[in-house]
Amino acid sequence: MTQMINAEMSASVWRVLVTPGTEVEADEPILILESMKMEIPVMSDGGRVVEIAVSQGEIVQSGQHLVTVDPS
Amino acid sequence: MTMNRQERIDVDAKKREAAMAMGGPAKLARRAEAGELNARERIAHLFDEGTFREMGLFATSQVPADKDSTPADGKVTGTGRIDGRLASAVAYDFTVKGASSSPVSNRKMQHMKDLALRSGFPVVYFSESTGVRMPDIMGGAGMGSMSDKVRFLRGRESPWVAAVFGFSFGSAAWHAVASDFSVFRKGSVMAVSSPKLVSMATAQQVDKEELGGWRIHGAQTGLVDMVVDTDAEAVAAIRRFLSYLPSNNQVAPPTAEVPKSSGAGMVDIESFVPESPSQVYDMRKVLAQIADKDSVFELKSLYAKNLTTALVRIGGKSVGVIANNPMFKGGAIDADACDKAVNMLVMCDSYNIPLLFLVDQPGFLVGLEAERQKIAGKVINWMNALSLVTVPKVTVMLRKNYGQAFVNMGGAETAHAVAAWWTSQVSFMDPRSGTQIVYGVTPESDPEAFERGYTEMARGTSAYDIASVYGVHEVIDPADTRDFIIDALDVHHLGRTNGIGEHLLRHWPTSF
């Protein structure tokens, strides 16, 4: 089942680590949010990244859609 | 008519067989096919073999038409032993009129509670019920005949524990949410009333999983402490939970042998924690090293993951852990995490279980959402509870420790034994934030001015600085953490009362 990953808290997008189409392992960081001075990795259950809905430097709200991953 | 002994034995055996038949073979077979245990099988899994003594086997509905179709009146009740210790149990038998509640079955349940209170042992609920039974409880006379004066008076004299199976509405839900520990079997639905009734009452079409499924109660409401896949796992979780607790609040928790190789990972403990305070790690991996081998029993693992709570053993003793987990939300403490922490304080204080705080947090999670969720009220609720705790409290600061959350996490003389890892950094806020606020510069706007300001703001924030005013009792090598805790549990043991606290939190609400 396609995995939709949303922001767990309000944050800024500090770094985007992969591009759509990339295969990622379970618990491999896809992007890193910055909030409360913490670098908070966004991870999936593993698969192919089909969409990255945000870009570096963007401010995201809690619950906002970040990444879509198709399990491989 | 007189009967001889053999005739009496035969009559009794027949009556017993009928009472043991539950809702009949067809219903029982359907459950078995679905992979679910029935009420009597659940009881058999719970108690040590041959120790169950049933009370109320011959109870039935008092509605004449239902007398023969209500064996045990839908609730199997009695006492038995769990790892040799007594407990009473109420197993809702869903195959008998949906385990609905009637005056007789309510009397049985009340007896189990009274017994447990008077004799000082736990009550186990196997919840699965449609709610009240009609016509047994109906109309003014039905409602007016109920006696609920002390039904939900929780004084936490002895533990209540519950497993939620199948549909749990009405009292099946009440007992689960009022318990000290509740485990939820996937596929169950816990709610005030059924999806059908909700749909009728509110013209809302509701899905049962959305109304009260495992995701709702495991991750959103936090009303249950654990989610499992099978009935047998649920019963095993209850047995395990009780192994950490005393039978009642007037005795100390049981101790266990310390498994060999416990603490073996302590030499490498620093490798679990990145040096940069901005980087995350999973605190549960650190906890697994500190605790006795395989003794971590995590509670509410799907709810407020940014704060880990667990029962563990350290040096063979039961300990309640409240730990920040930087892996989630960077370890920032939000409203749900506050509720989770208070829950743990209340349980540990009520049952003489010492508390351990493992601290690595960037502060309370501030923002619009937090304020709307009453974070200010919850921070102080936590402080009120923390100040009422009388069991030993041990604090270990690992890395960063900022703001009011420093106090809530067992700082500022709120704990009895306090150590800081030599890597700790303590201040009113992250020095990087402090620099931005006090000097009005960011690393991007003016790198040099930021660096100067940062040097100023970071001054005096080390473990040795807080130790210089006796704000911590010891600065420790992280590898010594387990030994520090074992010694602290000895030194701060409540010797005058054999480990029994004052239980000032025992009347705290069961949900808040």
Task: Describe what you observe in this structure.
- The complex is a heterodimer of chains A (72) and B (512).
- Chain A has a single domain, classed as RNA polymerase II/Efflux pump adaptor protein, barrel-sandwich hybrid domain (OB fold (Dihydrolipoamide Acetyltransferase, E2P)).
- In chain A, 0% of the residues lie in helices and 50% in strands.
- The model of chain A has no long low-confidence stretch (mean pLDDT 94).
- Chain B has 512 residues and is α/β, with parallel strands linked by helices.
- Chain B folds into three domains: 199 residues, 2-enoyl-CoA Hydratase, Chain A, domain 1 (Alpha-Beta Complex), CATH 3.90.226; 195 residues, 2-enoyl-CoA Hydratase, Chain A, domain 1 (Alpha-Beta Complex), CATH 3.90.226.10; 32 residues, no CATH class.
- Chain B has 19 helices and 16 strands.
- In chain B, the strands form two sheets. In chain B, strands 1, 2, 3, 4, 5, 6, 7 and 8 form an eight-stranded mixed sheet that branches. In chain B, strands 9, 10, 11, 12, 13, 14, 15 and 16 form an eight-stranded mixed sheet that branches.
- In chain B, strand 4, helix 5 and strand 5 form a beta-alpha-beta unit.
- In chain B, helix 12 packs parallel to helix 14 and helix 16 packs across helix 17.
